[in-house]
Design a protein that fits this description.
227 residues; alpha+beta; Glucose Permease (Domain IIA); 2 domains; ten-stranded antiparallel sheet; 3 helices; 10 strands; rod-shaped; binds zinc ion
Length: 227
């Protein structure tokens, strides 16, 4: 499932909490402990811990194209400086560390030596982060792990879908057999009673009419089920 969040502060706004300075990123309010995954392949530039100041615990990823992605106010960090990361790799958990008034992720973008607007990367953050399990369901790290996770996810979905189709198909076949069975029993019953009626059984014809009515009803109901 994609990450659940709301944008609690946009890029460039002037806010009192920052002493009237411009906001150098976007703030995404989310529950503490939300998994944060890299949205790109790159290298962990730095892991920081400013304590109760600034962005608190944070991770800075240098993307392969040379930009910096800043993750701030994290609760815990799962990577170390110099580590290669790939899209979907767990960086750590979101939190409320540093200068923060509630659980949120501060995400910043540094481009050509200056802060840039990271708003366009929010959909990627949403796609890659959230409740996706660890670096990999199969314990495979890196891009292979990410692909393996996708395959497992897809296969699980496919199997569940296939099983449902199978069961529905089987039930409809079974209903069809019951209908055919009722048809046979009804016809045989009718024939026997008509013969008995012809042979002199007083109520033979009447009973055959009842059996015919009953089997017609079963057929009608059964037909409705199997269709
Ligand atoms: Zn912020």
């Amino acid at each position: 499932m994609p990450m659940k969040f709301r944008v609690s502060s946009e890029y460039g706004v002037l806010e009192e909490i920052r002493g009237g300075r411009e906001h150098h990123g976007v703030d995404l309010a989310m529950p503490q402990g939300t998994e944060l995954h890299s949205i790109t392949s790159g290298t962990v530039e730095r892991v920081v811990n400013h304590g109760a100041d600034n962005i608190g615990r944070g991770v800075i990823v240098r993307t392969d194209s040379g930009e910096l992605h800043v993750y701030g106010h994290m609760d815990s960090v799962a990577v170390h400086a110099g580590e290669r990361v790939f899209p979907g790799e767990l960086l750590g958990m979101s939190g409320n560390t540093g200068h923060s008034s509630g659980p949120h992720l501060h995400f910043g973008l540094i481009k050509d030596g200056g802060f840039a607007d990271p708003t366009g990367l929010i959909p990627d953050l949403q796609r890659y982060s959230g409740e996706i399990a660890g670096p990999s369901i199969l314990g495979i790290k890196g891009p292979a792990g990410w692909v393996a996770d996708k395959v497992v996810d897809h296969a699980a979905e496919h199997v569940a879908h296939g099983a449902r189709e199978h069961i529905i198909h089987w039930l409809s076949e079974a209903a069809g057999v019951l209908v055919d069975l009722s048809y046979g029993i009804g016809l045989i019953g009718c024939s026997v009673l008509i013969i008995l009626g012809a042979l002199g059984l007083r109520d033979g014809y009447r009973w055959s009419g009842l059996v015919f009515g009953a089997y017609s009803l079963i057929r009608l109901l059964g037909g409705g089920l199997s269709r």
